[in-house]
Amino acid sequence: MPISADSVVELLADLVSIDSVNPSLVAGSRGEENVARRIAAELDAIGCAIEVTYVAPDRPNIVGVLNGRAPGRTLMLCGHTDTVGVEGMADPFGAQIRDGKLYGRGAQDMKGGLAAMIGAARRIVEGGGLETGQLLIAAVADEEHTSLGADALVERWRADAAVVTEPTGLDVAVCHKGFQWVRVETRGTAAHGSRPNEGRDAILRMGRFLQRLEAHDRHVQRGRAHPLLGTASLHASLLEGGHELSSYPRRARLIFERRTLPGEPSDVALNEANEILAALRSDDSEFEAEATALFGRGGYEIDAMHPLPGMLVEAAARVGASPSRVGMTFWTDAAILGAAGIPSVLFGPGGAGLHSREEYVYVEDVCRCRDALVELTRAFTQS
Ligand SMILES: [Zn+2]
How far is the CA of 332 from the centre of ligand 1 (A)? Predict the structure, then answer.
């Protein structure tokens, strides 16, 4: 049978061909509803009970439930239905297969993972269903923005463990970094550009902050390194200031991002910014600025003693994969599941180009991911 005739590949091609760009990232975009409908139809055809929950207008979460014949443990498979934008892409919804790769926006991040986990439910039903326990298939909205979907999911659902099928190249990711965004505003005194005695330059004041921020980043990157994630880091993201050429600027604004390691405090970036500002104030009593925390999400790491990563490595080995235990640099919904008491790992197909102009997923990886999830579900729900 050609690989493209596998039902999981047909499903993947359908999912990629449906626009689900996150409307909070790109104004006027379609959002998740159409792809969620396709997923709900698939889960219904498989024989799952389905719950649809709107986390915002036109933006549903879908949860499919497959119950075993006797009580047991619950495994959740979770993926996000939204994608980033498609600007500059030649054929974002083409879903063409060339040389074993399926191309299009979201192919790797993460419709490949969604197709694999839904395909796993199909295989389990076709193989006679679950002896014991429960499988939850959760397709959530808005991961690429503020994770409204995962936040709503953990309000309603519990599981003994979860696999988030973000792209890991069929490795088992046991941890990932978090992030924090902080805004810094420096103030000056607006004045005619010819009058240095009256004017105070907010942009040059920001320059002092930036210089110290860069030095602090070097310090952070020489600091504690996680064995799988390396060190924390920070960078300046957005900068604006001034209002005309011939005037001293009264205000400058910076937003910087700090990528955090699991376990770092939720206000670490704000505290670091405030320490820099305090030092600048003690150097210059006229220096005026303030820092504000905007948004952040913690990093995540599954308990080192939890059996899930080992079970998943074994399950993947039974279908011919040989996963390593790795950490991912990017943040994922696993942090929200983990914080809600659902131990989670990441495991999904390989590919390339997430968030860039040409994105693809390896079709064979999607099939192998599906097969590993079938093995894991049977082992986990029966243990
Ligand atoms: Zn993703």
Answer: 7
| pLDDT tens sequence across 197-253 | 999 999 999 999 999 999 999 999 999 999 999 999 999 999 999 999 999 999 999
Distance 356 CA to ligand 1 centre (A): 13
C-alpha of residue 110 to centroid of ligand 1, in Å: 5
Q: Three-state secondary structure along the chain?
A: CCHHHCHHHHHHHHHHHCCCECCCCCCCCCCCHHHHHHHHHHHHHHCCEEEEEEEECCEEEEEEEEECCEEEEEEEEEEECCECCCCCCCCCCCCCEECCEEECCCHHHHHHHHHHHHHHHHHHHHCCCCCEEEEEEEEECCCCCCCHHHHHHHHHCCCCEEEECCCCCCCEEEEECEEEEEEEEEECECCECCCCCCCECHHHHHHHHHHHHHHHHHHHHCCCCECCCECCEEEEEEEEECCCCCECCCEEEEEEEEEECCCCCCCHHHHHHHHHHHHHHHHCCCCEEEEEEEEEECCEECCCCCCHHHHHHHHHHHCCCCCCEEEECCCCCHHHHHHCCCCEEECCCCEECCCCCCCEEEHHHHHHHHHHHHHHHHHHHHC
- pLDDT (tens digit, 9 = 90+) per residue, 134-155? 999 999 999 999 999 999 999 9
Query: Separation of 305 CA from ligand 1 center, angstroms?
Result: 26
In this prediction the pTM is: 0.92
Protein residues placing their CB within 5 Å of the ion ligand 1: 109-110, 166
